[in-house]
Amino acid sequence: MSGIKNRFVAEHVRGLPRSGIRDFFALVQQMPQAISLGIGEPDFVTPWNIREAAIYSLERGRTSYTDNLGLLALRRTVAEYVEKTFGMSYHGDKEVLIGIGVSEVLDTAMRATLNPGDKVLYHQPCYVSYSPSIQLAGAKPLPVKVHEEHNFALQVEDLEAAWEPGTKALVLNFPTNPTGGVMSREETEKVAKFCIEKDLLVYSDDIYAELTYEGRHVSIASLPGMQERTIFLHGLSKAWAMTGFRIGYACAPQPIIEAMMKVHQYSIMSVSIFTQEAAVEALKRSDDSVARMRDSYHRRRDFLVRRFNEMGLTCHLPRATFYTFPSIACTGMDETSFCQQLLKEEEVAVVPGTAFGHSGAGFVRASFSTSFDKLQIAADRMERFVDRYRK
Ligand SMILES: Cc1ncc(COP(=O)(O)O)c(C=O)c1O
Questions:
Q1: What CATH number should be reported for the domain holding residue 216?
Q2: Closest by alpha carbon to 106, among 164, 49, 9, 172?
Q3: Do 213 and 302 reside in the same domain of the chain?
Q4: Is residue 2 packed enough to be buried (19+ CB in 10 Å), middle (13-18) or exposed (0-12)?
Q5: The domain spanning residue 374 has which CATH number?
Q6: Is the CB of residue 351 less than 8 Å from the CB of residue 24?
Q7: Does 273 lie in the same domain as 156?
Q8: Do 128 and 232 fall into the same domain?
Q9: From ligand 1's centre to the CA of 194, what distance in Å?
Q10: How many Cβ atoms sit within 10 Å of the Cβ of residue 329?
Q11: Could you give the percent of the chain with pLDDT greater than 70?
Q12: Which atom of ligand 1 is nearest to the CA of 237?
């Protein structure tokens, strides 16, 4: 479902597609008995100490606006956390902006830095908002396909081939939604070198960094010469199971944060104070909870990837996130028919790969942020389905 016909709607919005995930899940919601592997959020409730911090904040009557940049205590906590975890040093007072999730800080970053007609590279398949956010900022998206044979890591040769004169920026999301792909340090270094050569700004969405199961995530912002040209975007939705708190942040050189603050100030004003106070608690005292949730996802990942490969849905090992991205080639079906038929016949919901861009053709996204019991039932049903349609 895309496009809107109404003379009052702005032209640049008219042509934007609705998120394919939303449409599909409107359908799933009419089937309460279906098992959904489609969700993109943790199945854990937010750890208690974080919820308690939000309650305590309200109890103390903390109900005001905050500084437009966000609570100073949170900005300083973010700066400490980012230094400890990723090795980048930002000044909490002026190089950090707190926003409503990575969704908002990404949009704000683009609106603050892109001029009409600028071109922006992004790798695909990717999170659904990148291309629309680039377009809403008046710029032109330039997709770069990532391939299964490279474990969905971005190859600099593909970036070079997609680059055009007038390209201003690159969106990078590793670990990636929907593929679970990660980049090695060497691959990231090559991309960084390219960005420096072409004088690109990088929007680096590192929201899944803490859900890395093998190795350690290296943010492009931490590589030499990159911090000055990177807007580092992160948030608490995924690893801290805080999607409903709506907390994200951007770290960048002060003039960029200042520009972002203007956009944020006039559209958002400031994020709720009690969720910001809860975020301080999350970043200071929740490492154990994050590790426990990560261990649980890790076990579920191993199970689901093994089952997919056994049933013939070839599936690369996602080294991070809570998504698998198996190929459905063995069924000979296209991804939309596969998802619709699977839902109808076996009541299991997975998302067509093309919801994440045309480069997702031939794949589906199945999330393992669902209980082990449900994953087992879903895998049995999917195996039955694949056996029925195997070519
Ligand atoms: C890659 C990526 N970036 C950003 C977001 C949005 O997260 P937030 O809840 O912080 O707005 C998501 C949510 O699914 C995501 O997968």
A1: 3.40.640.10
A2: 172
A3: no
A4: exposed
A5: 3.90.1150.10
A6: yes
A7: yes
A8: yes
A9: 26
A10: 13
A11: 99
A12: 9
Beta pairing class for 119-124 and 167-172: parallel
Residue 103 Cα, ligand 1 centroid: separation in angstroms?
Answer: 6
Q: Could you identify the atom of ligand 1 that is nearest to the CA of residue 247? A: 10
326 CA to centre of ligand 1 in angstroms: 21
Best mutation site among 39, 207, 247 for ligand 1, i.e. most ligand atoms within 8 A of its Cβ? Answer: 207
Assess whether 295 and 278 both reside in one domain: no
Q: How far is the C-alpha of 250 from the C-alpha of 172, rounded, in Å? A: 14
307 and 279 part of one domain: no
Q: Show the tokens assigned to 74.
A: 């949170």
DSSP H helical ranges for 213-329:
254-267, 273-285, 287-311
- Residue 104 CB contacts under 8 Å (≥ 6 apart), including other chains: 246, 248, 264, 268
Final residue belonging to a domain, choices 285, 317, 350:
285
Mean predicted lDDT score pLDDT of the chain: 96
Bridging pattern class, strands 201-205 and 248-251: unpaired
Asked whether residue 319 is assigned to any structural domain, the reply reads yes
Which of 21, 97, 102, 131 has the most ligand 1 atoms within 8 A of CB, as the residue to mutate? 102
Distance 332 CA to ligand 1 centre (A): 31
pLDDT mean over 106-121: 98
Q: Same domain for 69 and 207?
A: yes
Q: Rounded distance, CA 216 to CA 372, Å? A: 26
Residue 202 domain-assigned (yes or no): yes
| Closest CA to ligand 1's atom 13 | 40
Per-residue model confidence as pLDDT tens digits over 227-266: 999 999 999 999 999 999 999 999 999 999 999 999 999 9
Residues with CB under 6 A from ligand 1: 40, 101-103, 127, 173, 177, 205, 207, 235, 237, 243, 248
pLDDT at residue 1, rounded to an integer: 45
Residue numbers of the domain that contains 158: 48-285
Nearest CA to ligand 1 atom 14: 40
The answer to whether residues 105 and 220 belong to one domain is yes
367 shares a domain with 233: no
**Cα of 102 to ligand 1 centre, how many Å?**
6
The token pair that represents 386 in the structure block = 């694949």
pLDDT of residue 24: 76
| Distance from the alpha carbon of residue 207 to the mean position of ligand 1, in angstroms | 7
pLDDT tens-digit map of 40-96: 899 999 999 999 999 999 999 999 999 999 999 999 999 999 999 999 999 999 999
